[in-house]
Design a protein that fits this description.
GO molecular function: metal ion binding; methyltransferase activity
Keywords: Chromosome, Metal-binding, Methyltransferase, S-adenosyl-L-methionine, Transferase, Zinc
CATH architecture of the largest domain: Beta Complex
Number of strands: 12
Strand content: 15-25%
Protein name: SET domain-containing protein
Shape: globular
Domain SET: 77-201
Structural class: alpha+beta
Bound molecules: S-adenosylmethionine
Order of helices and strands: EEHHHEEEEHEEEEEEH
CATH class of the largest domain: Mainly Beta
InterPro entries: H3K9_Histone-Lys_N-MTase, SET_dom, SET_dom_sf
Helix content: 10-25%
Radius of gyration: 18 Å
CATH topology of the largest domain: Beta-clip-like
Strand order of the largest sheet: 5-11-10
């Protein structure tokens, strides 16, 4: 497989151009399969390169290659918050969102496991106050960290996205360069008026299963 020696890619967070040079095939294979960044930006970045291993990885996951854009969707322009039947409030599209579009990052307080334990001491795991916690850590056995979007003043529209199970139209991507973050992309074309949904996964619902609509 041919691996390009120079890659130019758009950094989704900062919007700056990133140049990666001199990547060996082994490095690309290792980084793309393990999702490691710092060496590379990430496997999604390489999806921009036709024929790259990351493109194959993404194709094998049946998710569209992300379309990089530096600007997150804006509340009141691209999305709005409305009641979502049986789910509290939810996030709805105000315009067509193309497949592969960058939606935004899930913003909130970044906390360690110890900080979570301290913050939510005595709080039940199915409490609504812990409903906005998402895991940020990677697959490498690093110390777990979480993003807590409970406080709206420290978060963004992402905190309103509900769980859609198999009918979800978004997917989450854990990015680790230049900072660790959780980014969302459109899995398919989303029409104006549709709710933006992603699959929270089984572990989120382990203590809340009866809530799911
Ligand atoms: C991150 S919040 C999503 C925004 C929330 N609906 C609100 O009004 O602030 C996650 C919580 O939303 C509710 N929720 C999300 N998806 C749901 C679903 N498919 N069925 C039932 N409740 C859901 C649950 O209470 C869950 O703990």
């Amino acid at each position: 497989m041919k691996i390009p020696q120079k890659l130019f890619a758009q950094d989704t967070a900062a919007g700056r151009e990133l140049r990666l040079t001199g990547l060996s095939a082994a490095t690309v294979l290792f980084a793309a399969s393990a999702g490691i960044e710092g060496v590379l930006k990430n496997s999604a970045l390489l999806a921009c390169v036709p024929g790259s291993i990351a493109a194959a990885v993404i194709a094998s996951r049946s998710i569209p290659a992300p379309v990089f854009r530096s600007q997150p969707l804006q509340m009141g322009v691209d999305v709005e918050v409305l009641p979502s039947e049986g789910r509290g409030e939810g996030l709805f599209a105000l315009r067509t969102i193309e497949k592969g579009s960058y939606i935004f990052d899930y913003l909130g307080e970044t906390l360690s496991q110890e900080e979570i334990d301290e913050k939510y001491v005595g709080v039940r795991s199915d409490s609504s106050s812990t409903a906005y916690l998402l895991e940020l850590n990677g697959p490498l056995g690093l110390k777990p960290t979480f993003v807590d979007a409970f406080d709206p003043t420290l978060s963004n529209a992402a905190r309103f996205m509900n769980h859609g199970g198999d009918a979800s139209n978004l997917y989450k991507f854990k990015q680790r360069y230049p900072t660790r973050r959780l980014s969302f992309f459109a899995k398919e074309r989303i029409e104006s008026g549709e709710e933006l949904l992603w699959n929270y996964g089984a572990s989120y619902w382990s203590n809340r299963e009866e809530e799911i609509v």
